[in-house]
User: Which sequence fits this backbone?
């Protein structure tokens, strides 16, 4: 019997959590599409690493906030792999700034990458999923989308919007056999948190019952679970691996 591997598209997959998701899915025999925008070197190195292990990975550059670039990326995915079975909307940016200092351009950019990017990718992938009457969409939010974070109002707003988007789209797509879920990580040890000084880091660790930051791989396995057949009756949910930071 010929086994056809499923295909996963991970946006913002060149570094951090996205890179860990790409590796975990490839190790579970998925064809992996590594979307990136600025970190070309990292993306190509990840593509090479996965392919050298005997799996299949393809790096594709696209700005998820640009609908035309997203459409072209999906067309490339379809040409190479026949479609997309799992979409992981992970691409994101972060910024710490007082609300009164946030410019309109910074506000728009934050929402364009996180919210419009998620919208664009879902719009482009859904025709293929709807045709098959199956598919998994997993959106990456943040603990700050649940609790809010001081000096990160625009980031918290964008991540909260992704949660609302997930719950609404799950209801709409349920009858078509497509599950839409969300992962909202706690504090994870990635480059995105390198701005924290020693005291800030310790304060966050002290507020986490497991007394440490999470690892990117731990988030990747949560995403893999939601993409698996074991999660076929789960939709519209927010899974928050946060070490007990919020219970």
Assistant:
């Amino acid at each position: 019997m010929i086994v056809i591997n499923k295909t996963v598209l991970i946006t913002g997959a060149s570094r951090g959590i996205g890179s860990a998701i790409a590796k975990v899915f490839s190790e579970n025999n998925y064809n992996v599409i590594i979307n990136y925008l600025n970190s070309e070197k990292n993306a190509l190195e990840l593509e090479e690493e996965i392919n050298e292990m005997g799996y299949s990975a393809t790096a594709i550059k696209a700005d998820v906030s640009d609908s035309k670039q997203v459409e072209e990326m999906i067309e490339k995915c379809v040409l190479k792999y026949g479609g997309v079975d799992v979409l992981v909307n992970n691409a994101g940016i972060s910024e710490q700034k007082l609300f009164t200092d946030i410019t309109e351009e910074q506000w728009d950019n934050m929402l364009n990458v996180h919210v419009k990017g998620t919208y664009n990718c879902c719009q482009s992938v859904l025709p293929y999923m709807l045709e098959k009457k199956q598919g998994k969409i997993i959106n990456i939010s943040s603990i700050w989308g649940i609790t809010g974070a001081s000096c990160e109002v625009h980031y918290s707003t964008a991540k909260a919007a992704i949660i609302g988007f997930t719950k609404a789209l799950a209801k709409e797509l349920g009858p078509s056999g497509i599950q839409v879920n969300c992962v909202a990580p706690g504090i994870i040890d990635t480059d995105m948190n390198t701005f924290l000084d020693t005291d800030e880091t310790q304060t966050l660790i002290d507020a986490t019952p497991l007394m440490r930051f999470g690892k990117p791989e731990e988030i990747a396995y949560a995403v893999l679970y939601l993409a698996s057949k074991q999660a076929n009756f789960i939709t519209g949910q927010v899974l928050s691996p946060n070490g007990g930071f919020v219970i």
About this structure: Residues 7-239 form a domain with the Rossmann fold fold (CATH 3.40.50.720). The CA atoms of residues 6 and 37 lie 24 Å apart.
